[in-house]
Amino acid sequence: MPLMDPIAREAMGLPAASTDGVPVLFMSSNGVGMGHLTRLLAIALRTEPDVAPVFLSLSRAAGVVSRFGLPWEHVSSNAALGDTAVWDLVLRDAVVATIDRWGIRAVVFDGVAPYRGLQAALDRRPDVKRAWVRRGLWLPGRITELGIADWFDTVIVPGELGPDDDPPDAPTAVDPVTLVDRSQLADRATARRELGLPADARILLVAMGSGAMTDVATPFRAVMDVVADRHWVVARPRSPLPGDLVPPGLDVHTFEAYPMARLFRAFDAAIAASGYNSFHELVVGGVPSLFVPQPRETDDQERRAEHAAAAGAGLVAPDLADLPERVSALLSDDVRASLRSRLDDHGVRNGADQAAAVVRSLVGA
Amino acid sequence: MRYPRLRRLLGPLEPQVRDGYHWVRGRIARWRRSALVVVALDADHDGAAEGLAADLDDRIGVWLCCRDDVAPPGSWGWFVVRLEPASVQHEVDRRAEVAAVVDSWRRACRNVAVRDLRDEPT
């Protein structure tokens, strides 16, 4: 079957997509986000060529999979129906059909809670192996699905920069998972050229999410107030997700790039949410960063940002009131030099390679 | 990790049988809901998507397509199912995939209407 235009695959220096390997289904939750999807892409790309990845995503941004030349299917999340019972039935049939259509031998699920429809599908196809990629750093008291770990052949926990809680069900822990390796980063001049950014300016990346889940306009304006008279160029990514917003009336260079992490060397500093992927990609990219934790249902972004601060590898602004002072600190040459030095010293091993090895062994590839 | 081994020993199981509460919930949901399944190809059908969405009332609207940008029909109120293009396009003889999605909705809802836009001019 002809595959799609693999623009990101070529940019990352990856060979053509594998179609001869063992078919494995990578299934991500999401809906209005794409963190689970991005993490699965990181793992799937590293299972090739022994594995032929197929994606089934609930994310509205699932189309980014096309950029890697991989086949993908999409089913809207349960939020689109508001009727979990119907959704479970539809999801069950979709997963069963996808398994049969592609001859799937294992399902790798990345999401907070394995859905009843997924469980029902695999009850119908019990020979299919199953793995759960379960991000760590849950907010206290929010892990309610641990019992379901028993339902998987293996549970893979992507690592953190700092210590995580000890999970009671002894899953497979790997190093932090990132889509882009340090060796795949474009150099500064190339990255700026691709993004249409000036070659010789000081450039600040502001990436606090699409605004689909939280208010990002208010902190964005607070940042711009500080930056206004400092002679920095401010750049922000346009999210592939709907609901993306640019606060009106601001002098901001907006760009589109996925995966954005490959181009992080374009930036002298970053202000970002401390979600799993953006946090670890910025660490790998060696970008001096100020992390602004966003409230989430299960992800403890504040604790993750504090890990960076404790390691001297980042700044953190837990509250809006802290932003002006912390942004000023980030714009200081001395502070950025110190952060960059710690980040350069930080040994980076991509846990996606380890997770991919687990998936390969699951299917005997 | 015990469950997968046990399940493989027992073989395939009709899921509703092992969970009566959810079987009842599923039956009630099916009895309550109606759906319109539209089979579309790509962005050429966006005009129809907006118009048909306005007539859904309390029916579930299902947009079955093969487009890469699945966000727009979702933002108009459609439940989006996206298959690989070869599964949806007429020129490839793999229409079974489309039929399987329609059958799935017929199992999940009481009353399902189907509209195939692939044969209609855009």
How would you describe what is shown here?
The complex is a heterodimer of chains A (365) and B (122). Chain A has 365 residues and is an alpha/beta fold. Chain A is 32% helix and 16% strand. Chain A has helices spanning 7-11, 35-45, 84-102, 116-124, 188-195, 217-227, 276-285, 301-310, 323-330, 333-345, 351-362, and strands spanning 22-28, 51-57, 72-75, 106-110, 129-133, 154-158, 172-174, 203-207, 233-237, 253-255, 269-272, 289-291, 315-316. In chain A, strand 8 (203-207), helix 6 and strand 9 (233-237) form a beta-alpha-beta unit. In chain A, helix 3 (84-102) packs across helix 4 (116-124) and helix 6 packs across helix 9 (323-330). The relative contact order of chain A is 0.14. The model of chain A has no long low-confidence stretch (mean pLDDT 88). In chain B, 43% of the residues lie in helices and 18% in strands. Chain B has six helices and four strands. In chain B, strand 2 (60-65), helix 4 (71-75) and strand 3 form a beta-alpha-beta unit. Chains A and B meet through strand 3, helix 3 and helix 4 of A and helix 1, helix 2, helix 4, strand 3 and helix 6 of B.
Number of helices of chain A: 11
The stretches of 5 or more residues of chain B where confidence is low (pLDDT under 50) are none
Largest interface: A-B, 46 and 47 residues
Shape of chain B: globular
- Give the beta-strand count of chain A: 13
